[in-house]
From TrEMBL:
Protein name as annotated: RidA family protein
Regions crossing the membrane: none
Origin superkingdom: Bacteria
SUPFAM superfamilies assigned: YjgF-like
Coiled-coil intervals: none
Amino acid sequence: MFGYCRSLYWHLTNSNHVEILCTGSLGTAFANGGRGEGCRVLLKRNQVRHAACAFKKRDRNVIVRREKTKIMHRVVEHSGVVYLGGVIADEVNGTSMRDQAAEVCGKIEKLLSDAGSDKSKLLSATVFITDMSQKAEMNDVWTSWLPAEDLPCRATIGVSDLGQNVLIEIVVTAAA
């Protein structure tokens, strides 16, 4: 890669491509020639991994957003840190705190893996639960999921509502 990129923002399109917006000069970084300030580049997903590695080494302002929803991206990575938005269980009807907590932990593990991280790199967690009397049940799942040496800093907050039948929501931050 040639040139530089002051800030690089990208997102997955609904096809097999990634759109990249660069606010610097990419020079002749991509196959179809030099691109100037504010360029937009559409790459196939297999090309992005190589481009991202080169940019990460040069520019700590890279922001990678994954899993877009109507209101947010589920995963955002910046400066070697992976941020996960609130994760809830898919199966919430008639399920216990234990079941929902286990499912949420599994989803977090997959999201971290997809972002190139893992649960041993967790830095912090915020756990929202609707019934503080079930905190011990949630803690049992949490401590069986994470080895003691990998426990992040954590806060557990009791809330009145997380959505119909949702008992737990977890937000985590991890090193990439």
